[in-house]
Amino acid sequence: MNLTTFFMAYIVAFVLLWRMALVGLPFVLLLIILGLIYSRILMVLVRKVMHEYNKAGNIVEQAISSIRMVYSFVGESKTMNGFSVALKGCLKYGLKQGLVKGVTIGSNGITFAVWALMAWYAGRLVMYYDVKGGTVFTVGTVMNHGGIAFGSGLLNVKYFAEAFSARERIMEVIKKVPKIDSDNMEGEILQSVSGDVEFKNVKFAYPSRPENTILEAFCLKLPAGKTVTSVGRSDSGKSTLIALLQRFYDPLEGEIFLDGITINKLQLKWL
């Protein structure tokens, strides 16, 4: 709506009095350039804000999924402090976002400078070129109205920037090809299983937390028929061993064997 108002205002201005519209045209280009710069900076800031929100969201997600563990170890304060620290990044980029938006709204004041120039030039046209005062006033009014409409339209760029940023993440998920294909029917099927399991020099970190290494050069032999207990603090890798054995994930390094055969050579459905 605002863009249509803007362009139609200048079309009307050129039709009625092209000289006056031509004088105001450079300022229009300045407004457009400011709008493009604003949208570009805003898109970068929105991406950064969303990235920071994701960090905070991960903390909340982990805390809620392990809420019994958090409660039993009295970790509520630690979790809340971590969440608060993660939100500081959002605050920093949010303030920058507000500053850019404020500067852009302020730059919309150029339209009043244009109006002042038009008023001066309009007087010259009336005095020396026999242009009618009504025509001059109409052209000046529509140009000013068009400029204000364009400035109002810029305020909506924020929502488009947020939508584009969200789209990138959504498309990232949609286009992602999983390394482990659960529908793949290729691979060996063992006719008989005794149940010997071995972890050999296994290194692993979850894809969502690549900087947090869970297992490093981990070795373990589990003979068939033995009952084995895995004991350790939270996030020490107890449930990770089961997840790796079931091939929900593949190790970054090392191998896992079932009866002497690497499990990534076995048919996943069968495993």
From TrEMBL:
Q: Where is the ABC transmembrane type-1 domain?
A: 2-139
One of the Pfam families matching this protein, by short name: ABC_tran
Q: Which GO terms describe its cellular component?
A: membrane
Query: What molecular functions are annotated in GO for this chain?
Result: ABC-type transporter activity; ATP binding; ATP hydrolysis activity
Q: Which UniProt keywords apply?
A: Glycoprotein, Membrane, Repeat, Transmembrane, Transmembrane helix, Transport
Residues passing through the membrane, by range: 6-38, 102-122, 142-161
Q: Which InterPro entries match?
A: ABC1_TM_dom, ABC1_TM_sf, ABC_transporter-like_ATP-bd, P-loop_NTPase
Could you say which protein family the record assigns here? Belongs to the ABC transporter superfamily. ABCB family. Multidrug resistance exporter (TC 3.A.1.201) subfamily.
**Protein name per its UniProtKB record:** ABC transmembrane type-1 domain-containing protein
What lineage is on file?
Answer: Eukaryota, Viridiplantae, Streptophyta, Embryophyta, Tracheophyta
